[in-house]
Amino acid sequence: MHYEVVTFDCYGTLIDWEEGISRAFRGAAAADGIRLDDQAVLAAYAEVEPAVEAGGYRSYRAVLGECAREVGARLGWTVPAERAGFLADSLATWRPFPDTVPALERLAAAGHALGILSNVDDDLLAATRKLLGVEFALIVTAEQVRSYKPAHGHFLEARRRIGTRPWLHAARSRFHDIEPARALGIDAAWIRRGDRKGDAPAGVQVFDDLARLAEWMTAD
Question: Which of 176, 179, 183, 205 is nearest to 192 (CA)?
Answer without folding.
Answer: 205
